């Protein structure tokens, strides 16, 4: 039965029949895919003549897994999350990627040093870095704007409701960092019972003021409605509300939670060589900087930061909104997918038990 | 007389009537079956098979046993309580080496991780160097990862060495096994499912009661008004019914949130101070209000269809015989609406038990239901077996209520519309 399900899923995807000189690339859709088409796909087609079919999926890892397991692969390249990249690689569903194929930075720095730490995995290479940050309503704190993650948990100094993501992942790490744990030690602390208790204690201090959110579209909405005065959320969404719609939001770049999206090639991809070529091309310094023109997610290469220009409106400087801007990267929490692969279920249960108590 | 019955009745062409009738009925039955065959197939493929497959996963999980043949063999020859000796570690080393080759350490480790948190990386990290292990394996493995010493890991592996397992049902009831294999409750801070199951049950009962309380007078009004006015009112009931669930949930968020319409109105009227707005959303109240509104048509419609068939003359007769209006309602009218109350109540209750989107959006911390946990295990932790076990329990509870209903009221008395 599982085979049958996998087969039907794979059949749907084989609508994009494999032929020479094309690539099937699966990504998340929306403005994110648009940014990739503009910055990567079009120049690649221009340069090589290879046609690119851009396919949308809710989570590209799902059709990828189904196709490889059914042995009928039509996807050449997929944009997936770090935890999925590691899991699928562990299960042998991804093509290993030799970092030597990645071009060096313009100044000659090798790719392995140019990419931010953790961006090059055994079977995947990151293209963007995205942050879960705290944003606040500027009109609520005139002359006394919050600036640290600890301020988010300080309801005496900054009264008002707080929006928080209703999952253990990210929320517990941010609570610990706000409580004074150094970001690079956060997983060491969270791995102990005392650390978990400490995170809950910190969360307890604002529990009655928390409005929980789950979907990425909620935080800017909660903030715009005045339902909360401060909330965690995805930096690209806050950018769209602040710059795109002119909302009076401010972003706190302290203790932000950093995660990647990565390119991965499934085992048995029909156009392996072209896929590798595309992967190397799209993660070069210029291409990663180009993508930033369309969306406020940071390039995974340090050398791209200098090349980031204006937003597509032609007047907004992108650099201050980038999670990878050195100004913003003073105190980030880097996700640890291995920790979460181990503790996701346990902490999710504890987190929900804490929520319900 | 005896002559007539013993003689067989035949049709005009001499066939026995019984056989001829049976043959013609068989053709009809086949034709009828062909007509329902597409629906039957559809239900089988899209409903029964996937649900069956899902429930099967709640007690069958072979992700460890199929990847660790040597350990399965060792566990089957060494009964519970055996010492974890060199032969066990040799089996472990053989399996880990194989896992490295097939890249299945993550898969096998995930299964053990469901039971003992923190063991997935134990598998992946040990498997990384597994082809270099040399005897004595116990020392070699423990040198790489001290955690293999933990008897709980071995207990979990023994439990997972058979693909058939009750582990997920234990987990769904906040139970686990200790190192000796005895069933014990999980740590206090981790127990969640029984509590949520109870809350789901309570919330569903409250919502059902509210729906009946609110729906009954509306249905009565609908059934007693003249047709034209009733139709107008009916549209008011049906319009929200036809509107998307998400739209209605969001509408409630706009109305009830602390900067929302209702609170603004109360502040403007001076009933509530601006800094003490009432929290009606993102908690249990929000869940109850939104779900009651969304499920209300499911009580109104069956009640209306039943009330429509009750002749008003019965109540008039009761009144004319001296009954007070309350007695006439209680003894004459209400019992006749019972099929509608039963159908509407049961429908709302079953729908409420499995509700997911609305509590997820407006439930906040204390308005969560068990379906939100099922969704979490389906989408985030990817522990489909636990999700299946929770779903199976939910299904069992609904079936129990169905059975109670059948015993008390009788399922044949139910009228859905």
Descriptive notes:
The complex is a heterodimer of chains A (357) and B (417). Chain A is α/β, with parallel strands linked by helices and 357 residues long. Chain A has two domains: 2-129 and 260-321, 3-Layer(aba) Sandwich (D-Maltodextrin-Binding Protein, domain 2); 132-258 and 335-356, Periplasmic binding protein-like II (D-Maltodextrin-Binding Protein, domain 2), CATH 3.40.190.10. Chain A has 14 helices and ten strands. Chain A has helices at residues 2-13, 30-48, 61-70, 82-90, 111-114, 149-152, 168-178, 186-190, 193-204, 218-225, 235-244, 272-282, 285-291, 337-356, and strands at residues 22-27, 51-56, 77-81, 124-137, 162-165, 210-213, 230-234, 249-264, 298-299, 333-334. Chain B has a two-stranded antiparallel ribbon. Chain B has 417 residues and is mostly helical. Chain B has three domains: 2-57, no CATH class; 69-190, no CATH class; 193-413, MetI-like fold. In chain B, strand 1 and strand 2 (183-185) form a beta hairpin. Chain B has helices spanning 2-6, 17-57, 69-77, 86-102, 105-115, 120-128, 137-144, 151-160, 167-172, 193-224, 227-242, 245-256, 261-268, 284-308, 313-320, 325-353, 357-362, 370-379, 384-408, and strands at 175-177, 183-185. The two termini of chain B are 51 Å apart. In chain B, 34% of the residues are buried. Helix content of chain B is 69%, strand content 1%. Classes of the chains: A alpha/beta (357), B mainly alpha (417). The A-B interface holds A 1-2, 5, 87, 89-92, 161, 166-167, 191, 196, 207, 210-212, 214, 225-227, 338, 341-346, 348-350, 352-356 and B 49-50, 53, 102-107, 110, 113-114, 117-121, 124, 189-192, 195-196, 199, 257-259, 282, 360-361, 364-366, 368, 373, 376, 380-381, 383, 386.
List keywords for this structure.
A: alpha/beta, D-Maltodextrin-Binding Protein, domain 2, ten-stranded mixed beta sheet, B: 417 residues, mainly alpha, MetI-like fold, two-stranded antiparallel sheet, 69% helix, 1% strand, flat
